[in-house]
Amino acid sequence: MTTRVDALCAEYLSGLRAYLEEEGEAGLALAYELGRRAMMDRLGLLDMAAMHRAALDTVVLPANPAHRARYMDGASAFFNELLAPFELSIEGYRAALAASEERFQLAVSGATAGLWDWNPQTDEIYFSPHFKRIMGYENSELPNVRQAHFGAIHADDAERVAQSLKSHLETRAPYDVEYRVRMKSGEFCWVHSRGQALWNEAGLAYRMVGWILDITDRKRDEEALRTSREEMRRLSAHIQQVREEEKARIARELHDDLGQQLTALKMATSLLEPSGGKPVTVTHEALKGIYTMIDDLVQSVRHIAADLHPVVLDDLGLIPAIDGLVDEFSARYRIRVIRHLDPDSIEFNRKCRIDMFRMVQEALTNVARHSGATEVVVDIKRADPHCIVRIVDNGHGAVTDGARKRHSFGLLGMRERAALLGGEIRIRTAPGAGFALTAILPLASLEAKDAD
Ligand SMILES: Nc1ncnc2c1ncn2[C@@H]1O[C@H](COP(=O)(O)OP(=O)(O)OP(=O)(O)O)[C@@H](O)[C@H]1O
Ligand SMILES: [Mg+2]
């Protein structure tokens, strides 16, 4: 390198000397060429300045004072020409930088991701306008200060994000995290953030560029899916348990109720058996007692069967069955029921009948158990293309969220039944404002032909 600098210095010196004598264009062209070669040799402006200074000392200062001023001007022109390639390259560099900056800004403004660009050494940071928009701010509202974003990260996520950033900078592990960040409105949104640092030769991170994406909707869907899976799991566990309890109840009723009645009947009939060759006189009283026992037995069997599946549903149809249910309900709980059951025109198929019956049954049971109501409206009507079922009470209502209690399955089961019919359940309630439950069920599914 030194020999190359020395050679260049020598050429510069002789070139300057020749130029000062002739002051021709060719001399300036040589200065330009020397400048270009110096650049190719990766020499810098300081090298050029040192070279010129040496030339002044050697050529200009010792010159005749009468020529010195002219030599000074000539030397300056020569030096300017030497620097011209440097200037041109700086200009070109600036233009390239401006173009790349423009491309960056275009990318930033068109991006769906919010971009950030951080200098870990000086802590200077840039947030793109969209970055700020994701957080609910206008470009001018959020300062380009690291804390403006990192300080707004949810307390439960902050440590995880800081750890991830630290290990990226220290061990170059990928920086790829999801976290919640507080928006201008005070609500939290979910973001997915990725970034990549640049390290210098000493292993020091001098820049980190990354993006964030708003993933709130995705997170909400995931959460809803998780909750619904969890509810389904609980519901199916509950159904298993109910099935076992139901079997136990039927076994108990068969044993305690029917079993005892049959034993009594057997004893009563055994008295009619001739004993010791003597004929038995069957009294009217004895026969009446036996008939009563048989009637009770029939009644018990009916009760057990009706509990398992209301036969009236198949014999008379949904509306008469609900009518009967409502009669029984208001007689038992002394709650006035106003009913509008007039969907004569709907041909409820067999599949939907039991689902709709159970929905109304559960809603009425809830009124009796939770509402403290004195009056309830049961309304079933056709509103093409739906059938609307409403059960509205004037009781003390509930906080809506209460409907998702851990050990409550009635509303959950109702929602499942409605969903299986292609419909949905809506609830309107508030403490002190009664409880209004509406099932919106598509007629297409209620009236679809039974498979048989
Ligand atoms: N008509 C109503 N009035 C006031 N609160 C009600 C009414 N219906 C339901 N709720 C509230 O909604 C909750 C959930 O009802 P849901 O039928 O799912 O469960 P549950 O009746 O508590 O238990 P089960 O699983 O035996 O049905 C109830 O615990 C009650 O707080
Ligand atoms: Mg219930």
Task: Describe this protein's structure.
There is one protein chain. The protein has 452 residues and is α+β, with helices and mostly antiparallel strands. It has helices at 2-22, 25-40, 45-60, 65-110, 129-134, 146-150, 155-171, 216-270, 284-308, 311-315, 318-333, 350-371, 410-420, 443-446; strands spanning 114-118, 125-127, 175-182, 188-199, 205-214, 336-341, 375-383, 386-393, 424-429, 435-442. It folds into 4 domains: 2-106, no CATH class; 111-214, Beta-Lactamase, CATH 3.30.450.20; 221-308, no CATH class; 310-452, Histidine kinase-like ATPase, C-terminal domain (Heat Shock Protein 90, 2-Layer Sandwich). It has a 5-stranded antiparallel sheet, sandwiched between helices. A hairpin with a 5-residue loop joins strand 3 and strand 4 (188-199). The mean pLDDT is 88. The structure holds adenosine-5'-triphosphate and magnesium ion.
